[in-house]
Amino acid sequence: MPLLYARDLPWPEVKRAAESGAIALVPVGSTEAHGPHLPLATDVLIAEAVAARVAAQLSARSRPAVVFPPCSYTLAEFARPFAGTVSVSADAARAYLADVLAAIARTPFSRVGVLNHHLEPEHFRVVRDAARLAQERVPGSDVRVPDHRRPPFADQLGREFTHGGSHAGWYETSLVMAAAPHLVREPARAGLPAIPVDLPALIKAGKKDFLECGGPDAYLGDPASATAADGERLLELLAGHALQALIS
Fold first, then answer.
1. Is residue 61 a contact partner of residue 240, using CB atoms and an 8 Å limit?
2. Are 135 and 141 in contact (CB under 8 A)?
3. Spatial separation of the C-alpha atoms in residues 42 and 34, rounded to whole Å
């Protein structure tokens, strides 16, 4: 069963897919600075790569899926001081995403999976609120947001993810090296010193942006230790977790 991308399909094919029980997959990310070595679209690239793997795994189970174009602009306050970052208000992001998800649910896809990989806490709340609003607007719809930040699954993603920098560090750099290696700036990446901070703890302590967290170049963690092999492993883990959340 081939992977279906909504952007490539005429509307009757989208309608047939929805009526056949396909799950709609919506990648969600941000447009924000990710160090001097990763693109602004890092979160979107990761979300799209996970969506493609989820769709492939659903196809292997004879369950169709349709991958929709990503939502790429949202609240991104932690990277606001850096050029290229586009941060919109929480209210605007919530309203926009809720409208997008409700429109997809009305197609009618009975189940919509929101694959979010921008991890700023306030943004994740926006995504969950938007999914709830969309579901309330479309009776009978089922809009799900897999959350890979929660234990025990989060522990499988490595200590940097749970207690380290995790913004353009080993975790995200490995994922982009697997998903879009041509967009990683080498040898700049390999020469970056590690910034060993506990980002979740800093956020809880009230830090407001990456400068306050000790990341003057919009990265935290250890990007020099990243590998494409680690990225492939992480993508498979993320896809497997999302799949279970969507079919359970």
1. no
2. yes
3. 7
Let me know how many helices (H) and strands (E) the chain has, helices first.
Answer: 8, 5
Give mean pLDDT, residues 198-210: 95
- Domains in the chain, number: 1
What CATH number is given to the structural domain containing 94? 3.40.50.10310
- Residue 206 belongs to domain spanning: 4-247
Q: Could you please report the per-residue DSSP string of 191-211?
A: GPPPB---HHHHHHTT--STT
> Which residues touch 203 (CB under 8 Å, ≥6 apart)?
121
Q: Per residue in 3-28, pLDDT tens?
A: 999 999 999 999 999 999 999 999 99
pLDDT value at residue 1:
66
Rounded Cα gap, residues 14 and 24, in angstroms: 10
Three-state DSSP state, 132? helix
Omega within 30 of 0 (cis) for the link into 121: no
